[in-house]
Amino acid sequence: MSDSSAVGSEAGAGTEAEAGTGSRGLLFRGSDVEELSDLIRVRFAPHRLAVLADHPLDGRFRRVHEGTVAIYELGYGSEVDVTPEAPLDFYNVHAPLAGGGAVTVNGKSLSSPLSIAGPGQKLTMRWSHDSVNRTLIIPRQSIDQALAVRLGDQPQKPLDFAPVFDERADAVRAWLNVVQHFAEFAGSALAARSPLAIRHFEQLLVNGLLDAQPHMLSEAVAGRDRVALPSAVRRAAVFCAEHAGEPVSVADMAQAARVGVRSLREGFRTHMDTTPLAYLRSVRLDLARRDLLAVAEGQVSQTVTDVALRWGFTHLGRFTGHYRKAYGETPSQTVRSARPVR
Questions:
Q1: N vs C: which end of the chain shows fewer Cβ within 10 Å?
Q2: pTM for the complete prediction?
Q3: What are the beta bridge partners of residue 94?
């Protein structure tokens, strides 16, 4: 087994020289649990690392790229539990390259370790001895800035992505290919000479993630809600998406839109042919459907009641009626039959 101290010291001494555009380098190779944990703490977050197997750690930690998006590759060579000590303050994407693992977000076990967790969420992981993960670290600011360009305003809350990536979806597969190509490009001579190309690649990763993986602002980001909406109506619509799981009144929406209640109602009637509360209900129905489809695909384990209550539908009969009218089937029918992914 390799002696980790020499590699660790070399990595520490070369960190500043290697960091930056297109850099990639071995940060750790060996069996020193504390040294590996310290390196992960600096680059990811404070955490607890517990080796579960009888045989010692045989870890490898490699930096692929560090910039506005960071990419690392990490394997432990032993079965481990990894638990961040606090909720995340960044977006963490796991793209397994080998082996297996189990990921839990906010206490819910995910069906696949190919996953994303974001700011404010609690993450726990168990990785098999042969697992190797490509991990992306995306600061909240990078996502917020991309959303501000798309929507015209900075979001008030961190974006809530669907936690599991569905590899059957064409858009997801394409985005994962971009990640792979960037990992290859980051170590090239061209990347070292072209910081502008690196920045474009980073923006492609961030914006591609917003378009490929479902989240609470998917409709607005894709421009499928409405185009050229007045700023007040747009601000109210974004507020609905960000606060759909909370008690929201028309007055709350008007305050977020920075107009009076009467003006807001007139804006929704004129430009969206609906009322503010009916629009809020449609947003909640869309989010409920997203969750029910995830249940149908086995990505999460929840009941129809769990999903309804999460999105503010306390009267299950009315929820079923609104849902059937919107989607032509009941919530239970959605759960029983997963739809093909495109």
A1: C
A2: 0.72
A3: 115, 135
The candidate with the shortest Cα–Cα distance to 86, out of 117, 57, 114, is 117
Half-sphere exposure of 296 (CA within 13 A, CB side): 18
Q: Rounded distance, CA 94 to CA 214, Å?
A: 16
Predicted local distance difference test score (pLDDT) of residue 338 = 59
Token pair, residue 274, equals 């609906």
Helix (H) or strand (E) segment spanning residue 105: strand 101-105
Bridge partners of 117, per DSSP, are: 92
For 312, left (φ over 0), alpha (ψ -120 to 50), or beta? left
Q: Residue 286 CB: number of other CB atoms within 10 A?
A: 19
* Residue pointed to by tokens 């239970």: 332
Residue-wise pLDDT for 62-110, tens only, equals 999 999 999 999 999 999 999 999 999 999 999 999 999 999 999 889 9
Residue listed under structure tokens 């959605």: 334
The answer to whether the CB of 117 falls within 8 A of the CB of 123 is yes
| HEC-encoded secondary structure of 54-103 | CCCCCEEEEEEECCCCEEEEEECCCCEEEEECCCCCEEEEEEEEECCEEE
Give the position of tokens 């995340």: 88
Q: Other C-beta atoms within 10 Å of 141: how many?
A: 11
Closest by Cα among 246, 248, 288 to 162 = 288
Phi/psi of residue 18, each to 5°?
-85, -25
The DSSP secondary-structure symbol of 232 reads H
Contacts (Cβ under 8 Å, ≥6 apart) of 36: 4, 28, 30, 49, 57, 59, 61, 76
pLDDT, residue 104, reads: 94
Q: What is the C-alpha separation between 29 and 128, in angstroms, rounded?
A: 17
Torsion of CA 285, 286, 291, 297, to 10 degrees: 120
